Every structure is written in C-alpha cells, then in structure tokens.
Amino acid sequence: MNCKVCDSKRTNIWFDDKDYFTCLECDCIFRSNLPENTIHTSRSTLKQKLGITISKRFWDVVANQYLKYLKTKTGLKFKTVFDIGSAYGHFVKKLEENGIDSIGIEKDQRYYAKRITDKIRLGYFDETVNLDKKYDLIAFTNMIYYLDNPISTLNHVKKFLNKDGLIFIATYSVISPLFKKYPKIIEGDVNIMLSRKNFEDLIGFKIIDFTNFRADIFLERRKKSTMFSELKNYIKFYFKQSFTESKQGQQSFILLQVSD
User: Fold this and answer.
1) Using an 8 Å Cβ cutoff, are 219 and 244 in contact?
2) Tell me: the pLDDT tens digits for 195-237?
3) CB 7 within 8 A of CB 192
4) How far is residue 147 from each of residues 107, 140, 221, 246, measured CA to CA in Å?
5) What is the band of 142 on the pLDDT scale with cuts at 50, 70, 90?
6) Where exactly are the structural domains of the chain?
7) pLDDT above 60 for 45
8) In terms of DSSP H, where are the helices of 99-166?
9) What fold is seen in the domain 39-258?
10) pTM exceeds 0.85, yes or no
C-alpha cells in the first residue's frame, strides 16, 4: 500500500484491521479505503436533543481553546476569517464577538440544523470549492483529517488568503503515544492524519507555529461518546484546563503562512 501523501512504498499496517497504515517516510497515518463523503441528516428524538445540548457545551469549550491559542500567537489581528468544519458555529460566533467578520462551512446537517449562528453554511469543502472573497485567516478546525487530499486542499486555499494571511489548523498529532495505545480512537470518517514532516515539506508555505497539546477533553470524547460521557466531560473540563501544552499531546495547532 503506497502512502497517500508522499506515495512512498515504505508503509506498515498501523493496527490489525488492515485499514489504517503508517508511512515510514513522511510519518503520516492514512486509511487504505476512503469512505464516501456525504452530508449527514438530522434526527429529532428526545435523546438526540439532549445529546445535542451536551455536545454544544463540549464544542464551546474547544472553541475557547482555539481562540486562546490565536490570541496568544497572533493577537487576533484579523478582519476576516473563513472556518472550515464549523460544527455548531461556536468558533465563528466567538470570532464575531471579538469584532472579526467570520463565516463557516459545515458538512454535517446534524450540526448545521442546530447551529448557534447564521454565519454558517451547509456544504462539503475540498480542493474543488471556490470562495467568493479573500480572508485574513482560513481555519481547518478538526476536519483536515477527513479530507481525501489535504495537501491539495491546502494548496488550493492559498489563493483565497489576503497578503500576510494565515492558515490555522487544529488536528490530531500522529506522534501521540495514546493513539498507538488506542488506535481505534481515530476510526470512522478519518482518512489521513498529517505529520509535522508533511507540513514542513509543503511547498510555498512556512510554519509560523507548531504546538502540540494534551487535549484531555478530546481524547475522552473519542474514546467513548455517549450522552452521559459528554455531560461528564463537560462538567469535568468546565472547571479544569482542557488543553495543556505537551510535546506528545494528541492535538497539534499549526499556523501556516504563504511563503514567497
């Protein structure tokens, strides 16, 4: 199985169901058979409504971490932001509250139907989608690993950045020992988990920042996501820091800028 990022033949099975592989050249983790990208439909049972309420609390905590990181690294000196993978829209709303003109896109109708802001549109984003304007920041918030071709998509969004614009990426960290211990955490729609080497090898980009975090709230949710566990996680991390900087953390936050 050749690597789906660098095309190297030096790959190994990552775990024993023979669906996920790791590349020995570029360190990425990729899925052998990519699932079809579809827009999920919504439901309206009482259990689902309660689950959505709790899920919204979770994404509110995560969006706070995105905002905290960007404040620290950039001072939030943006006028316009386009967010890809917006879920309910908490990150977009928080940016708006900070005086930044922001818009997002979300493919899952279950999130979109319960969005907390009208600045979200329903749709799938990849290297074929064009935007009608340029932005100071384009964000891939825990969605880039769902793409069939994340490198092509990153190259594609270059032309939609203003001068000195940035790309913010929140994604899984392939070096986390916890993913090796619990590899099935990333099963589902996850296609390709890019490594730091993949970002370093990008042509036409420079890395402004690359920070790993121990994202306890995210890990707990991926291990088990039930209505009870969502509520437990929200209560736990409402009073406790949910992201802590750690070299071997499960989440990577990355800032990229187009280079000359």
Assistant:
1) no
2) 999 999 999 999 999 999 987 766 666 665 565 666 666 666 6
3) no
4) 12, 11, 21, 26
5) very high
6) 39-258
7) no
8) 109-112, 150-157
9) Rossmann fold (3.40.50)
10) yes
Length of the chain: 260
Comparing CA positions, the residue from 167, 150, 138 lying closest to residue 255 is: 167
CA–CA separation, 19 vs 130, rounded Å? 32
Helix, strand, coil percent content, the chain, rounded in steps of 5: 35, 25, 40
Beta bridge partners of 167: 138, 256
Angle at 112 between CA 211 and CA 74, to 5 degrees: 25
- Are 86 and 106 spatial neighbours (Cβ–Cβ below 8 Å)? yes
CA neighbor of 139 nearest in space, from 105, 106, 169, 107: 169
What are the φ/ψ torsions at residue 253 (nearest 5 degrees)? -110, 125
Residue 97 CB partners (closer than 8 Å, separation 6+): none
Tokens matching residue 199: 């970002």
For residues 223 and 171, what is the distance between their CA atoms, to the nearest angstrom? 16
Residue listed under structure tokens 């736990």: 236
